[in-house]
Amino acid sequence: MKSKLENAYILHQRPYRETSLLLDLFSREQGVRRVVAKGVRGKKRSQAGLLQAYQPLWVSWVGRSELQTLTASESAGPRHALQGNANLCGLYLNELLLRLLATHDPAESVFQLYENTLTQLAECTETEIVLRLFEKRLLHALGYALALTHESDTHLARGDETQYYYQPTEGLRLWHAGAPAAKISGRALRQLDEETDFDLAGLLEIKQLMRGIMQFYLGDKPLRSRQLFAEMNAMRPQDK
Question: Quick check: pTM over 0.85?
Fold first, then answer.
């Protein structure tokens, strides 16, 4: 069945047979799809150059099986120029989408969130804030919104000076020794909830919070992009 020309990004690509590419597309209207771009590693080098991460595309494909065939691709605008750390952040976004989105499941709100986040990564240096807000908003779009305003047992409003921990199945709880998740201050939770007034200490706490929550939904398989972050940090000169 033929698909109409529609807006998409490539989340991942790898060589397929002798001259083709296997592409994981994220389509605005049809979600994640897997397609084969035939012959693009041979004579159609101009097309292969277009089929890159962060490049907005208009694409179409045909086929009745799970693996379909790309029939057209053209630029839908300039490529988001992600360099250095921003590029690793983009790879992290792509990996999260591939792991958390169901194939063939429309997710227009997630598509818009992804596109907006690529723009932010290309334009700013505050990548930690951009990533944390992407994670939070992605979970909300997928139906896993974080409950950050009240403690789940007592239903008391969050306090800046109170220490908490968060469990996806239970929500926000008062911190205690031996708690099963990282400690986070009410102040850092307020920053994440209101999406403003971030500081270094709060961002460090929020990073630990979101890492635990994302791991709950991702399962045990490690993220390749997270390993790349660790390798890059290990290569950086250390302060004396």
Answer: yes
